[in-house]
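S.,

Sequence below, as promised.
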Amino acid sequence: MLGADAKRAVETGLAAAEWYHTDIPRKQMKDLMRRDDGPAIRDTIILFGSMVALAGIGIALWPSIWSLPFWLAYGVLYGSAMDSRWHECSHGTAFKTRWMNDVIYQIASFCMVRNPHAWRWSHTRHHTDTIIVGRDPEIAIMRPPEFARLIANFFGLVDAWNGWIRMLYNATGRVHPEEASYIPEAEQHKVIRVARIWVVIYASVIALAFAMGSILPLMVIGLPRLYGAWHHVMTGLLQHGGLADNVIDHRLNSRTVYMNPISRFIYWNMNYHVEHHMFPMVPYHRLPELHEAVKHDLPLPNSSIAQAFAEMWPALRRQLKNEDFFLKRDLPATAKPYREDFHHAALGTAAE
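The prediction came back faster than expected:
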């Protein structure tokens, strides 16, 4: 973010560039962008109701091994479903009512150990400069890929740990230089304030655990970010993994994957990821409709999570030897072609 790649992205015009968008009639797009509290209220009641029930059963059965399935399910909702809630509410599209977005965004940010003020600006940059090396602070898989890091992250051992370290750093009254590169100076004091509040919460939970002589309080707050992270990491890697970087067409650098209803609920329809990046202001519950409207112009979606990993994983392994390699997405005959003048250099090293 502070090195030569960032400077190069600005010099070559990749930073804050004009991206390709599929043509959609204005009236239809206006309808798709219409916000509604109903679906998100329903899903939020289901989510938090399930979390309360699962944690309650887990506590009642503690420390029996029979509590394990309930903690594992609770962990996925805490450590993975909160990732998609953080994401959608950061866009302000999940609910029509602003304060509802803000409340769920704050809760989800705490669960995911992502400072809500730092990450709001980080995610804005991710959408402005998606997978532009040196500009996008949210590239999950750098080249060449670090497989040990990717696997460790399935247990939250990288992102969560980094989040807690950054929380302590911010709580001392400092903002990291990388954060300062995309967070306006007027907003930086909010990063510090939230970090200090979180430190107090975690300190209270840890103190309670010591007083009880049990890790039970940490099973409710903190540890689920580790043992429940696997689903959000699994789906997150598929968003852009193995695809092109430094291009300005989301059909080249993003992946749509058909998923089962449970994963779609946890992921809040972010499996329609090309569509989301093209039109980020369309609410999550309208993404299936958006997909139907634009699929004629997009690469064929991956048919399942397993099939997408079967496509992506060999590409990542090949990048160990050739970091310039990536998977080129094939377009249907009904699609507008890629802008070869923008992507000629990259397409030359894509998969055949």
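Residues 37-61 form the longest helix (25 residues).

Coffee later?
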